[in-house]
Amino acid sequence: MTRVLRLAGFNLVIAAAVLALKLGAWWLTGSVALLADALESVVNVAAAAAALLAVRFSAMPPDANHPYGHTKAEYFSAVLEGALIIVAALAILREAWGAYLAPQAPSQPAVGLLVSAAATAINAGWAWVLRREGKRVRSPALLADARHLMADVVTSTGVLLGVGAVAATGILWFDPLLAALTAANILWSGWQLMRESVGGLMDEAVDPPLLARIRKAVSTSAEGALEAHDLRTRHAGRLTFIEFHLVVPGSMSVDDAHVICDRIEAALKSEIEGATITIHVEPEGKAKHHGVLVL
């Protein structure tokens, strides 16, 4: 089992444990804000299960029907997570409205808040681990979960403070207000997550800093060529696809042009983990006098 699969499996276990703690906090207090927090954790469990399946599928090697591999499967998981977040937010708003119409004081607030605080601390630590490892292995599914968990930590912290304020002041409308604010926050988180994931499915180009690194690697390793143009890039999960046309002198032999291509590929792969490179070699008459100039 790869490290990514192990992380995804452990992520599901953590999500289930945090959900149990948050449901316990709600059961102890009856707070609708803590119920809202627990409902978001239901989404975490569903998203963690989807991420595990997506990571497992994306690890499959290329085959006849999927010659570019299966790495885009992780984007589907991230889109699903964003959709589930939005559904959870709508459910929270429904509960908040009901609590506003018939407010109730939380019972056993101290114990409930302690349990919820423990769940929030677990989420914060695990989100940090997922973000670090997700960046290292370039997993959209793990990074999506990390981002969602961090949003969960922020809202949970606000809920803890608010429920504590309700218990201290007796102002009951604080509770549904905090639930509604929690819903608004996770709606924004879900929208951002879906937008970024759909961008991956739509083959958006790499971000400007990475594009600059690609151009520099081509420019400094293509000695003997004249220029590189029509550079195109895209991400597919952990893979980065790079394509461009390389212009060489018309008198250059195929062997010499191949040596240049090998050198460029080696430079790009040392700079960008998971780079998949396609180079189309052209004679100097095809030069466009723009793109990447060879240093």
TrEMBL record:
Keywords for this protein: Cell membrane, Membrane, Transmembrane, Transmembrane helix, Transport
Record InterPro entries: Cation_efflux, Cation_efflux_CTD, Cation_efflux_CTD_sf, Cation_efflux_TM, Cation_efflux_TMD_sf, CDF_Transporter
Every Cation efflux protein transmembrane domain range: 12-202
Keyword Transmembrane: yes
Name assigned to this protein: Protein p34
Family, as annotated: Belongs to the cation diffusion facilitator (CDF) transporter (TC 2.A.4) family.
Domain of life: Bacteria
UniProt keyword Transmembrane present: yes
GO terms assigned for molecular function: cadmium ion transmembrane transporter activity; ferrous iron transmembrane transporter activity; zinc efflux antiporter activity
PANTHER family for the chain: MITOCHONDRIAL METAL TRANSPORTER 1-RELATED
